[in-house]
Design a protein that fits this description.
Layout: E1 15-19, H1 23-35, E2 39-43, H2 49-52, E3 60-63, H3 70-82, E4 87-90, H4 96-104, E5 123-128, E6 131-138
Parallel strand pairs: 1-2, 1-3, 3-4
Antiparallel strand pairs: 5-6
Helix pairs in contact: 1-4
């Protein structure tokens, strides 16, 4: 039984890829998302995920807590180059399914990183008079320090 309650209409049918290390956790998260109406796929073979999956097939790709660090950053860049519109989300058990559903529902949309079309690297977000806007300057570039 899922602890997510009824799924918002915006999340029903949402295409989600879940990547993790633990088969048991992955199975649980995928079942909760499927019970909430998502079309979900998953893998514990994160090292080959960018070759096995195409980010254009998903609205959101979730990364489990065991994928922190260089592997996660590599995958995010690879997936961003495949699909600039895909949302990339770091999650952790036991809240992963809730975090994914919340992101799909739009509550986190303004806080999720955007990626440069040219490099696949995250772009810097800036605040302007209370409105959240994305600055299309790639982090780490000389122009990003303006």
């Amino acid at each position: 039984m899922s602890g997510l309650g009824s799924a918002p209409a915006r999340t029903t049918g949402a295409r989600v890829l879940v990547l993790g290390r633990s088969p048991e956790v992955l199975e649980t998260v995928m079942q909760e998302l499927a019970d909430a109406g998502c079309a979900v796929q998953g893998s514990i073979d994160a090292e080959r995920a960018a070759e096995q999956f195409d980010a254009r097939d998903f609205e959101l790709i979730a990364f489990g807590g065991g994928l922190r660090g260089p592997l996660s950053e590599h995958l995010k860049q690879a997936f961003a180059l495949q699909n600039l519109q895909v949302r990339l989300l770091d999650t952790f058990a036991p809240q992963a399914a809730w975090q994914i559903m919340t992101a799909l529902d739009g509550a986190w949309k303004r806080r999720m990183p955007r990626y440069s079309q040219d490099t696949g690297r995250p772009v810097r977000a800036l605040m302007y008079s209370g409105n959240f806007e994305w600055n299309a300057v790639v982090k780490g570039s000389p122009r990003s320090r303006q």
